[in-house]
Amino acid sequence: MANDGFFEKVYGTAKLIPYGRVTSYGAIAKYLGATGSARMVGWAMNASQKKDVPAHRVVNRNGLLTGKHHFQGTNLMQQLLENEGVVVIDNKIQDFEKHFWDPMKEL
Question: Pick from 12, 36, 58, 88: most CB atoms within 10 A?
């Protein structure tokens, strides 16, 4: 698959997201030099189930849990985030700016 290299870079970046923090699909794309490829980052997250990737820590640019339907169970993504101290109400991360991890600034 042509995207394998890109997906592996996405997974490597996602594995660096600290416990209790989140980032966005677009922030990962930008960090990898692929600005405008947020959707491809989303595809990578969707395909990451068996790769030990903390995909629950990747959300959309507004803090919405847009990838939640790719997790087993109806609220698994939210539960994983809440276990890390992130408050989620109506599928949206509260205090998003406080929890946001920007790989461009932090790596």
Answer: 58
Using the structure block, give the residue that is written with the tokens 């990451």: 48
CATH topology for 4-98 is Arc Repressor Mutant, subunit A (1.10.10)
| DSSP E strands, 1-107 | 23-24, 58-59, 88-89, 92-93
In the chain, count of helices (H) and strands (E)?
Answer: 6, 4
In whole angstroms, give the CA distance from residue 24 to residue 63. 8
This prediction's pTM: 0.93
Q: Is the dihedral of CA 22, 25, 30, 32 positive or negative?
A: positive
Domain residue spans of the chain = 4-98
pLDDT tens for 58-97 read 999 999 999 998 888 779 999 999 999 999 999 999 999 9
Query: Which CA distances in Å does 63 have to 4, 52, 86, 92, 98?
Result: 27, 22, 11, 5, 11
User: Counting every residue, how long is the chain?
Assistant: 107
